[in-house]
Amino acid sequence: METESEPYVRLATLRQLHHVVADLNTARSLADTLQTVADGVINGLGYELAAVNLVRPDGDLVVAAVAGSAGAEALMAGRVGSRTAWDRWLSMGEHWGALRFIPHTEGWMLDDDDIPQWRNDGPIPRFADEWHPMDRLLAPMYSSGEELLGVISVDKPRNGRKPGPWGCEALQMYAFQAAIAISNARLRANMQRALVRLEREQQALRASEESFRQAFEYAPSGMAIAEMGGDQHGRLLRTNDALCRLLGRPAAAMRRYSFSDLVHPEDIGTLLRTSAEGGRAELRLARRDGTYVWVSLRNSVVADAADGPRFLLTHVEDIEERKRHELQLAHRASHDSLTGLPNSAELRARLGARLCSRPPLPSQNGPSSKTLDVAPGEFGGAAYGPVEAEAETDELGFRSDGFDAPYAGRRPIPPPLGPYDHHVHSVAPPEGEQDDGTKGLAVLFCDLDGFKSINDRFGHHTGDAVLIEVARRLTSGVRDGDTVARLGGDEFVVLADGLGRADAQDLAVRLRNAIIPPIRVEGRAVRVGASFGIGWASCGMSAEEVLQSADQRMYVEKRSRAKTHRRAG
Asked: How many CB atoms lie within 10 A of CB 81?
């Protein structure tokens, strides 16, 4: 057993300890470090067996390295001992400084524990300082934060004796250096794993960016990236070839614009709503040649978890053909296939849009006055709500007598406001000498005279040509905002707003005179006449009632004229 009086032993031990500690710092991995720790006990501290028990994340200790005996390594490597058992071992041993020594006289109490260990056969010691085969010496390893990292267990000193103060000091110093080496190895291992993970993430990011770039650049439909927020909100940062080709603009020029610069003025509201909501919309974008193309625009807000929205990714699909087809279908559904004029359904829709089911108040249909004397029940009676007795009123319109009794010569009180109370009610101008200049929506019902004989004599082909020419003449004879529609057969209707009765009569005469001139069809001149009936659209009437009224007036006008005057030739 070494003693304090043997300096050469100390020097030799220090040299060996220096070499094995140097080896600890050259290990490349955590596994190499653990094995180097076990080998260092054998090579530098004079023991024949050593095992390194490492604390796992769950708290138990696993035999991570064994040195000195292949049999012991095969028996113990990889086996796990519970943390509870290890705490009991470390607490019951004799304290040799930081070491724990469990003599063979007490070790039998630990035989049933689940800690992996080997059993040595050998002679019974004859002296007190000799090493017994069942003695156990443990060197705990702690981190800088006093957390248990593991335990080095040693056995069979080469000199056969229990270590003295200097041997214990050397083992304790070695365990301290081993803990530092293991901590550093773990740190290096974690850093290496982090670097590998970071490299994989960077590779995945580069692959993702490359995939996005290719998908963006070579997408068959338009793609764009725009700024979000700030002074340059909405400015296009990047566009792909498909969008540049669609709009006929180079990529360099596109970066000077935002979609709001390119969208049709009528669609700017739709664009703003789409940008704010990150949704989709159908709108028109301007080409370089000044024309517009219909596109389906779909926005996606690309956001950062920390910074919020970063930019707007916009997908632009050309829907010009589909939109044109839809418009064609809508036009066919609402227009006459022969003449191109609005058909009966479209006429009724346009007329119905101007009418409400509630007639205007009497004061709206004639000259304004403070009172209006009407017969009891006129203007719908009870349908207009209660009536008010005629009495003096103050300047605010309140009655002076405080009574509300109805009597003859009353005026209606308007009913509660409805959905049409704020629209401009359609009214019919008064007839005869009562004309006060009121303008209304005139409905001119036109029926061709002599058309059936043209169909019978020359065939439907000639009749169709006549209808087409009549439609053209009627359209040319009205204002831009007026409607010329074909009800079917040889019946046409003209809607002309803002006319008085005299204006409507003048329009009917002009249109009749426009129809009378001969119509040349395949070298043959044919002529038709026209009878017009003038009706007036008024709220409280349905579209059908308005058309029937004009139709009836047309027949009255047709019967009132001689047959020779209804035909121009």
From this structure: 20
pLDDT digits (tens, 9 = 90+) for 490-524: 999 999 999 999 999 999 999 999 999 999 998 88
Residue 267 in 3-state DSSP?
A: helix
The DSSP letter of residue 398 is: -
Closest CA to 468 of 510, 526, 535, 553: 526
H-helix segments, 77-114:
83-92, 104-107
Contact 39, 174 (CB under 8 A): no
* Architecture per CATH, 432-566: 2-Layer Sandwich (3.30)
**Residue 91: count of CB within 10 angstroms of its CB:** 8
Q: Are 251 and 244 in contact (CB under 8 A)?
A: yes
pLDDT score for 82: 92
Distance CA 498, CA 479 (A): 11
Give alpha helix (H) positions in 158-311: 165-217, 241-247, 251-254, 259-262, 268-277
220-324 and 432-566 agree in CATH topology: no
- Give the residue carrying structure tokens 């001149």: 525
Q: What is the rounded CA–CA span in Å between residue 481 and residue 567?
A: 30
Phi/psi at 5 (5° precision): -85, 10
**Which tokens go with 340?**
């191109």
- Tell me the pLDDT tens digit for each residue of 393-409: 444 344 444 433 333 34
pLDDT of 386: 40
The rounded distance, in Å, linking the Cα atoms of 126 and 283 is 103
Q: What is the pLDDT of residue 418?
A: 52
C-alpha distances in Å from residue 264, one per residue of 283, 290, 291, 313, 325 = 7, 11, 10, 20, 20
Taking the CA atoms of residue 492, residue 498, residue 504 and residue 506 in that order, the dihedral angle to the nearest 10 degrees is -110
Domain boundaries, the chain: 7-190, 220-324, 371-417, 432-566
- Give me the CATH code for the 220-324 domain, please: 3.30.450.20
Q: Could you write out the DSSP letters of every residue in 286-338? A: E-TTS-EEEEEEEEEEEEETTTEEEEEEEEEEE-HHHHHHHHHHHHHHHB-TT
Residues of the chain below pLDDT 50: 1-5, 364-391, 393-417, 564-569
**pLDDT at residue 399 in the model:** 41
Task: Assign domain 7-190 to a CATH class.
Answer: alpha beta
